[in-house]
Write a structure and sequence with these properties.
- The complex is a heterodimer of chains A (592) and B (85).
- By secondary structure, chain A is α+β, with helices and mostly antiparallel strands.
- Chain A contains 24 helices and 17 strands.
- In chain A, the strands form four sheets. In chain A, strands 2-1-6-3-4-5 form a six-stranded mixed beta sheet. Chain A has a six-stranded mixed beta sheet with strand order 8-7-12-9-10-11.
- In chain A, helix 13 packs parallel to helix 16, helix 19 (463-480) packs across helix 23 and helix 20 (492-503) crosses helix 21 (509-529).
- Chain B is α+β, with helices and mostly antiparallel strands.
- Chain B is built from three helices and seven strands.
- The chains are: A alpha+beta (592), B alpha+beta (85).
- Chain A binds chain B through residues 230-232, 234-236, 238-244, 246-247, 250-252, 272-273, 293, 308-310, 438-439, 442, 444, 448-451, 454, 457, 484-485, 488, 551-552, and chain B through 5, 7-9, 11, 52-53, 55, 57, 59-62, 64, 77, 79-85.
Chain lengths: 592, 85
């Protein structure tokens, strides 16, 4: 069937063997690809008895039916696994070029299981799979490995871990194409636990398209829509994602100094405007992307991709640091070492607060830009203070007896948006299946930017319906897989039409959203099976009890409980957050 | 005196980051702003109303009514269509 390659590559590192077998096409129709297909396979393969860092955990790399077709932003791919950071279901997705190449290699899914006796890297050239000794690569950083293994954007693409993954940091990322990241939740540690340093792909197959004429027309229409939208044709290319810094600060929803404040006096100095004026070298794009939001930035010490808004915030406002060159360098260092920037920055901020309050014996202090790089280095190698920080803020704060100072949900560090100024965002964090995350739907659109329409960010009643819709749509987009920024210029309806033209299966907007709802409920069931309960749908006490004393969010805490009750009802779950049998049956998930 | 703060590409169009404007209401402030900086008019206003996705805040709170009163210490912020995450 067009769209899918209909083939799974299944690699067992313990035996250094592989096999291929057909993809279950009914499963593909129901879960499409990417995050959805990954979650469905993970449900079958990894149960509660499996330690995330044991050989029994798996890495499931997935692309989707749109990947590699040339549709705008059809470059993305996912990795699904049980998270070593949170213990929840996890998928992380990334752009760049590797996902397109992986699709051209002729597979929808690659499962990596077991553990190699010694470090290995894998080379995939369509049907030719080779295991290589990685002894010489072990210990090398991401940029060096990527270069050594022959990265060539359109022909040969390298995915690898850095020292952080090798040292099993639970906030380690998997990097691809040098500076793109499968960042969140610690997939790099899972790869490190398997002694797998890198996966290199070269592909020759062109993905088949069911109705090329219709597809070509939709490609043309999408190009026009993206060019007409001021968001995708001006805002993102001109200023990148960091342009959010000033508006989040202006409305009092920019988490600052480990969420102790909601406004940062140094926001302007680390804004998208400042980055563009002083440090931007040029824009860059992922494969088949006309938006081009990627920044290539340069300081006296480094030149590289980024930083994105969340990374700039994590090392900036969250650490009380207004030194943009130091932030750019911290971002590049994380990419080279293979660390998730959001978790790394927020964990450092947690350590700064623990230290300032005398709970932890270290000299880390808010505002100390000079401490960023050495602390990040120490985290990747588990040295000195880094040994405590390498596994994220929750384990760090718990070790020092102050769990409440970890600004995380389900153990994953939250991004920049302080939910005391955005009630819907608070509900979104608390209910996110992979923990504190802005990519499982993001209420910054309706609550701050007026996308598609402005809603009252402090409103509580009725907010859950927006959150549910955003979560479902987000899960659907993550299953296609395309970049969520495309959705700022192109409606969900277009995605359904493109998917239909590529696969020959008729999807409409409702069915696509329903796929997203199916994925969301499956992920929920996974977490329940792991032992998560209603009590885990929560936020740090600071956000629930301590209202900001000044700024536009003064006096507000997250009104979680009423929103959560409404959310469970809206989802068709019982009062404990368990999907009712009827809901599961309606979604084709009966029997889970 | 109330200040209007401009962000992203509005700064380039106006040639400045902020403009002091003394007017009684948000609507009057915006009209005076585009009168002084004509290139901003097409970006911010359309038939006397805000263009889609333009965000205007008064002391960090969204402006939903052009008749909102402006006083001496107020800060009005104007953001063009922006996105990110």
């Amino acid at each position: 069937m067009a769209g899918w390659s209909e083939k799974i590559l299944d690699i067992d590192l313990s035996k250094k063997t592989y096999k291929t077998y057909p993809l279950d096409m009914e499963m593909a129709r129901l879960f499409i690809g990417g995050r959805g297909l990954g979650a469905r396979l993970l449900w079958e393969m990894v149960g509660p008895e499996v330690d995330p860092l044991s050989p029994e955990n798996v890495l499931i790399f997935t692309n989707g039916p749109l990947t590699g077709t040339g549709y705008q932003t059809s470059n993305r791919f996912s990795v699904s696994t049980k998270s070593p950071l949170t213990g929840t279901v996890l998928d992380a997705n990334s752009g760049g070029f590797w996902g397109m190449q992986f699709k051209k290699a002729g597979y929808d899914v690659m499962i990596v299981r077991g553990k190699a006796e010694r470090p290995v890297w894998i080379e995939i050239k369509n049907d030719e799979i080779t295991f290589h000794d990685a002894s010489e690569l072990w210990g090398m950083r991401v940029f060096a490995v990527t270069q050594k293994l022959g990265q060539n954007n359109n022909k040969r693409n390298v995915l690898c871990i850095g020292p952080a993954g090798e040292n099993l940091s639970r906030i380690a990322s998997i990097m691809n194409d040098r500076e793109r990241a499968l960042a969140r939740g610690g997939p790099g540690a899972v790869m490190g636990s398997k002694n797998l340093k890198a996966i290199v792909v070269e592909g020759k197959e062109r993905p088949a398209i069911n109705d090329p004429e219709r597809f070509k027309f939709l490609l043309y229409e999408t190009r026009k829509l993206l060019a007409a939208s001021p968001l995708t044709s001006q805002a993102l290319p001109e200023f990148g994602t960091v342009v959010l810094m000033n508006i989040m600060n202006n409305i009092g929803a920019l988490a600052t100094r480990n969420h102790q404040q909601t406004q940062f006096e140094g926001a302007e100095a680390i804004s998208g405007e400042e980055l563009t004026e002083k440090y931007l070298v040029k824009n860059a794009s992922c494969w088949a992307c006309p938006i081009g939001c990627t920044r290539i930035s340069k300081t006296e010490k480094v030149e590289g991709e980024g930083p994105e808004f969340e990374s700039t915030w994590a090392f900036g406002a969250q650490c009380g640091i207004d030194d943009l060159p130091a932030i750019i360098e911290a971002n590049t260092l994380c990419n080279d070492l293979g660390l998730d920037t959001i978790s790394a920055g927020s964990t450092i901020a947690c350590a700064m607060e623990l230290s300032e309050k005398g709970y932890m014996d270290s000299d880390l202090r808010f505002g100390r830009a000079d401490q960023l790089a050495p602390t990040i280095e120490a985290m990747a190698y588990r040295k000195d203070v880094g040994a405590d920080l390498a596994d994220g803020s929750l384990r760090l704060a718990t070790k020092y007896g102050h769990t409440e100072l970890s600004m995380s949900a389900k153990g994953m560090e939250m991004p920049a948006y302080d939910p005391r100024g955005m009630q819907g965002q608070g509900l979104l964090y608390a209910t996110s299946n992979r923990g504190g995350c802005h990519m499982r739907g993001n209420m910054v659109g309706p609550e701050v930017l007026g996308l598609p329409k402005m809603i009252d960010r402090f409103q509580v009643q009725g907010k859950s319906s927006f959150v549910i819709l955003h979560q479902n749509v987000s899960a659907a987009i993550d299953s296609l897989v395309v970049c969520k920024f495309t959705n700022m210029g192109v409606s969900d309806e277009y995605f359904a039409r493109v998917l239909s033209s590529v696969t020959g299966i008729q999807y409409d907007t409702g069915e696509l959203t329903r796929v997203g709802e199916r994925v969301w409920n499956l992920e929920r069931m996974y977490n329940l099976r792991e032992g998560f309960t209603r009590k885990d749908d929560t936020l740090p006490p600071r956000l629930l009890n301590d209202a900001p004393t000044d700024g536009p969010s003064k006096g507000w805490v997250v009104q979680l409980e009423p929103m959560l009750k409404e959310y469970y009802r809206g989802r068709g779950w019982d009062e404990n957050g368990v999907p009712k049998p009827k809901k599961l049956a309606d979604l084709g998930l009966a029997g889970l | 005196m109330p200040f209007v703060k401009l962000y992203a590409n509005l700064r380039k169009l106006a040639g400045t980051k902020e403009v002091p404007i003394t007017e009684a209401t948000i609507g009057a402030v915006l009209n005076e702003l585009v009168k002084r900086n004509p290139p901003l008019e097409d970006v911010i206003l359309e038939n006397g109303r805000l263009r889609p996705h333009i965000v205007v805040t008064l002391n960090g709170h969204n402006v939903i009514d052009f008749n909102m009163q402006v006083s001496e210490q107020d800060v009005i912020a104007i953001f063009p269509p922006i996105a990110g995450g």
